[in-house]
Amino acid sequence: MSKEILVCGAGIVGLATALALARRKQPVEILAPLPAPLAPAGDPYHPRVYAISPASQRFLAELGIWDALPAERIMAVQAMEIHGDADGCVTLDAWQAAVPQLAWIVESSEIERVLTQAARLSGISWIQDRCVGYQSGAVLTEQGGQLRADLVIGADGAKSPLRLAAGLRQQSAPYDDIALVTHLDVEIPHQGTALQWFREDGVLALLPLPDSARGPQVSLVWSLRSAAAKAIQALPAAEQAARLEADLALATAGRLGRLTVNAPVHGFPLFLEQAEMIAPGLALVGDAAHRVHPLAGQGLNLGLGDALALAQVVAERESFRAAGDIRVLRRYRRARAEPLLAMRLATDGLHRLFGSHSMPLAWLRNAGMTLVDQTPMLKRRLIAEASGL
Ligand SMILES: Cc1cc2nc3c(=O)[nH]c(=O)nc-3n(C[C@H](O)[C@H](O)[C@H](O)COP(=O)(O)OP(=O)(O)OC[C@H]3O[C@@H](n4cnc5c(N)ncnc54)[C@H](O)[C@@H]3O)c2cc1C
Description:
By secondary structure, the protein is of the alpha+beta class. It has a domain at 5-40 and 108-173 and 271-354: FAD/NAD(P)-binding domain, CATH 3.50.50. It is 36% helix and 30% strand. It has helices at 12-23, 54-62, 108-121, 161-166, 226-233, 237-252, 299-315, 326-355, 359-373, 376-387; strands at residues 5-8, 28-31, 49-52, 75-77, 79-83, 89-93, 103-107, 125-127, 131-135, 138-141, 146-148, 151-154, 170-186, 193-199, 202-212, 215-225, 259-261, 266-275, 278-279, 282-284, 290-291. Strand 9 and strand 10 (138-141) form a beta hairpin. Helix 1 (12-23) runs parallel beside helix 7 (299-315). Residues 8-14, 31-32, 50-51, 130-131, 155-157, 161, 179, 181, 221, 268, 286-287, 294, 297-301, 303 line the site of flavin-adenine dinucleotide.
């Protein structure tokens, strides 16, 4: 093994971690199948889009990849409108908070394509193989390799074969929710506003996308109780679209006019998970380390926060310490503890608050939203928190 640091997994978080380390002159190698070359963006939007926070945008800009993303496929979010299940509503807008935008909506495929190009161009070597085990400090690969490194970073996703093989503990609790994801043509322009409805039966989000040739469109993320989501998933495509359109018309009360499904519907079962993030010579980042409910659109942002924090502590370690020294890795765990806990509590708390049938809670959550909406200082604070500023 020639390199000191080995990153297993080349999703967005793994690629960003490798690139952040390379930019800090750390010798790093990637172990992952090379992604199939992604075609340049065409008209249909990639089914996965992410809300990217200002903190993540700054990090991607630091890695030199933000400007390489096609500007015409990125949507700046100017406002957020969050509805309760009665008449509670909070509107957060960039203008009130004196920031140019609250977030950006970007396709997963575009971030991955540009990060992969950047990793290849920056000379990071790429072992085209998969991690299948971890024994006595060595990563075992599918093709029979045994790779040693001072630090092995698990960026291999929620099911992380590395985490499992290394025996890092994980707490995992399924939400009884499946997120249905698709794109919708809308009748009324969204004007860069992200809309969200917290309902007793789940959380519905409409994220603004750039216009297609047909007109304005949004991306739908609808977390529904599993039974309800599965009933929709079981329908043939045409009936599925008709059913979703009818349910959405009721849930959104015509806020964006008529909604028309324009892409296949995908379903993602949701989990609340937190793993032990470090062991001597090992660190986990991204979904390998944690998953939260997507109601705040923050999972990837948390993973990018891990990537930046880990690259920083590794690059800033004392010269006599190895990258995988447990004292170095404890600094990483400390740096991530508060943001991870805060996001876990916020997303899980909101999920419980709005999933409850209790009448006093139903009143409180809507009254609370109205109160927040009438308190500009609180709104500015919320925007600053959400932006990672
Ligand atoms: C419905 C939904 C909506 C979401 N919306 C948002 C949002 O708006 N904003 C946001 O910030 N987050 C969002 N998230 C969260 C986000 O999707 C994840 O947090 C993010 O994709 C995690 O990235 P990752 O790189 O850690 O993992 P992954 O994307 O899973 O990447 C893991 C990589 O590891 C590779 N791999 C797997 N096994 C091996 C192996 N054995 N050896 C080598 N490589 C391996 C895989 O091929 C893959 O490339 C959402 C999640 C859901 C479910």
